[in-house]
Here is the input.
Amino acid sequence: MARFIGVEEIEALAVGAAVLGTGGGGDPYLGKIMAQEAIKEFGPVTLLDPSEVPADALVVPVAMMGAPTVFVEKIPNGDEALHSLRRLEDYLGKKAFAVMPMECGGLNSTIPFVVAARAGLPIVDADGMGRAFPELQMETFSVYGVSGTPMVITDERGNWTLLNTVDNAMMEYIARGVAVRMGGVGHIAEYPMTGDEMRRTSILQTVTLAIELGKAVLESSKKKVSPLIAMEEALIKSDYGKPIILFEAKITDVDRTTAEGFAKGTVNLEGINGSEGHEFRVDFQNENLIAYKGDQVLATVPDLITFIDLETFKPLTTETLRYGFRVACLAIPTPPIMRTEEALKVWGPKYFGYDLPFIPVEKLNEGMIVNGK
Amino acid sequence: MANNMYKIGVDVGGTNTDAVVLDQYDQVISAIKSPTTSDVQSGIFNSIKKVLDLSEVNVKDIAYVSLGTTHATNAIIRRKDLSKVAIVRICLPAGKGVLPMAGWDESLVQAIGGKSFLIHGGFEYDGRPLSDELLNYEECLEIFKEVREEGYDSIAVSSIFSPAKDLHEKEFARLAHEYLGEDFPVTLSSEIGSLGLLERENSAILNASVVAVAKKAANGLVEALEHLGITSKVFFAQNDGTLMSLEHAIKYPVLTIGSGPTNSTRGAAYLSNLKDCIVADIGGTSTDVGILVNGFPRQSALAVEVGGVLTNFRMPDLISIGLGGGSIVTVAGDDIKIGPDSVGYQIKEKAICFGGEILTATDIAVAAGVAEIDDPSCDPTRLNSLDPSLVTKAMDKIEKMVLEACEKIKTSPDPLPIVLVGGGSVIMPAESKSVELIKPEHFGCANALGAAIADASGEVDGLWPMEDKTREEIIQTAKALAIEKAISMGAKQDTTQIVDLEAVPLSYLPGNVLRVKAKAAGALQL
Here is the structure.
C-alpha cells in the first residue's frame, strides 16, 4: 500500500541506510537535510509498493555518484538529479511514472526523495544493491539484464551529458571520468526500465526496511537496549535473512592503506562479552567486505557486515572506526537475488580480489545464530 | 624577555576561576582557585589579583597573560546579546540545495535575526573557479547596501572549498571593509573550520553572532588588567590547545569554545613531563578522559554541537563518565552503583565525612585511606561504621570505571601512562597494579597551567589532485602552508614544526585525490 514519507521517516531512513551501508556509501547527513528541506517545501513523498507500479510504466533510479567529501563541501542545488531525469525523459520520449533508489545504503538512499518531492513523483520501495557498493554496474538491474544506459549525468553548473554505452561496465568507466571533470560529483538518472523489469530485477521493500532499521536503532539508543530484536523483526518481514551478531569486540587496530585511491584497510579486534580470548578481523574497501575469527571466515560480501557501537547502538562508518571502540559486528544475510551465480560474479569475494568462495553467512555460522547477545 | 619573565594563566570554569603564575622555566610560583562570578570579569580580576599577591611577582615582570574563557559559549547557550548577522554563501551556481541555518533551533534563528545571501563564486576541489576567477562586485555591493539599510551588526561569509582556497572570502572581506568600515566585523569560514560547508558555515554564523559580546568582554578584561598595572600581551586559549592573540580572539571568539578540557590535558602533560599520555580530569560530578598525542590533545572526528547547532570545531576527543568526587554511592545487595548522580559542589554539606548523610565516592576514598583531605571539617571517624568489604568493592569499581574510560580513548594497544588531575582525583589511588598512574603536584590547577604554557598554531585542510604532483610534493606543500599559518598566528619561526599530519585518498573518486590535513605549532614570539 502506498504511504506518505515525511520529515520523521527520513530521519529514521538516514540511520537505517547507514546500517545497510556496511561502513561505506557516504554519510547520509547532508542528503537527509536536503530531503527534509525538500519535503518541508513541496510536501511528503508517496512511497509505492513495487506491486503498485503498472507493467509498462517508466521507472528511473536516480542518485549521486562521486566523492561524498566533495558532496558535503560543494552543496548541490537539489535539482541536478531531477534535471538528469527530465533530459532522460526527453530522450526516451516518455514521462517517468516514478523514481527509485539505485542503492539503499548510505547517502544515495536519500537523494531520490529530493527528486521525488520536487517533481511530485512517487518513489518505488525497492533498490538495486540492497546495501552500498562502489560502482554503477554493481546493481541487480544490471545483473538481470537491464541496460544502465541511456543515462544522463548533470552537475551543479548545468553541464550535462547523455551516455549510451555498449555495456554497463563501460557506463561506469565513462561516467566516473565525467564525474571527475564535473568536480568530483555528478547527479545521475540511469537504468530506465518498465514496472515489470523493476519487479523482476530489484530488491523489494528496501526503503521500508531502512526506515524500520533506523527506527530500531533510534529507539534502542534512547532506551539503551539492544536494537537486535526490533531489527530482526524488520528483516524477517523483508527478503533478507535473520541478522547474526558475529561477535562483540574491542577494536585494537585500524590499518588504513592509502594506495590505489581506495579507502582500503583492515580492522583488528579483540573479543569481549563472551568472545574473550579470540581475535577478529574485518577487511574493508569503502565498505566492509570480509569478517574473520582468527583464520576462519565468518562472513563475506555481498552479505552485509556492519559495526554497531555498543554504547550508542548506532552504525559506524569505516572512517570513524578507531582503537578502543567497543562494537558489535552485525551480519545480515543478503536476499537470494544477490546470491545467484551471475550476481556473485559482479560482487562476490573474487571481484574484490579475494580467493574465497561465497558461502552464505548463515551457513558459515550454523548453530551460532544468537539473538540479543 | 630579559626582564619580563613571568606568565599568568587563567581558566574560567563553571564553578571556579583558577589562576597560576609561572616563572621563565614554567615552574609554578603560585596557584589559586576563586569562585567564578556571574559577570566573569570580576572573577578573573579577583583571581589574578590573588595569585599575583601570593606570588610576590612585580607586575612589570609579566611577559603575558593567557586566558581560557567561556564568554562565547554562554552567549550562544543563553541566546543573549547576540549580533544581527548577514549570512553570505559564495557558492553559485552550486549550493542552493540546503540554505544556511537549515535544521537550526527557531529560537536561535530569531536571536540572530539572520538573513542569507547566495552569490557567485567559490572553487572546485582542484582550484578551478566554480563561476569566475573574480567575485561579482555588483552582487557584493547589493549585500553591503542591505546590511547598512537593515542594520546588520556582523557578516559571516563562507565559500565553497575555502579551506583549500580562501581567495573569494578574503576578497569579499576586503570589499566589506572598504564599504562598511575597517572595523565592521566579517567572519571568514576558512579561518574557523575544515571541509564540510554546512558545518563550517554554521560555525562562522555562530562566531559572527558573538563578536560583539566577545569584544566587550575582551575590552573589559584589558581594562581590568590595566587596573592591576599589567600592560603585557594577552592571549586566549583555543579549543585545539594553542593560543591566539587578543586581536584574533576578538575576531574569532568561537575558537575559545571547549578550551577548558584542552587546557587541562595540556596542563596535566606538562605537570607530568609527558608528551604522550592519557589524562583523566576528575571533577565533582564527572570525569573527562582525553588523550595527548605528541603534546596535543587528539581531536574528535565527530561533529560537535554548540547550542544545538552542528559545527566542525576542532574539539578535543573526550570520553565523559558520570564519576566524580561527589558521586553518590548506592548499594543494592551485591550490586554497588556509583554515580551518575552527584552531590556536586555541595560535597562539604552532604558527604558523610563532612558530617552529611549521603555516601559519596569521596567518603569511600577517605575510608579506604586513599584520599587525605586537608580540611578541618572532614572527620574520617564518621566512616567507621562502613563495611570494609563494601569499601574495597567500591574502590575497585571507581578504579575500574576510570581505567575503562582510559582504555577506550587509546589509539593503539601500547601501554600509556595515565595522569590524574582535577579536584576530584582524590578518589583515585596514586598507584595501580595494571597501569602506570601519575598524580602530579598542583593537580588541581592543570587547566590554568595548560592555558599558560600553550603554543601558537596554524592548520590547513584541503584536497589536492595527484595528477601533476606526487603524494610527497602535496604533503610538503601542505606542511609549508601550515607552518606559514602558525607563524602568522604568532609562533616563533625557528621553533615551529608540524605536529599533526593526515593524508587520505578520497573514497569513490578515481584520479587519486588526496585530502591532507596538516597542523604546525611553535612557541610564542614575544
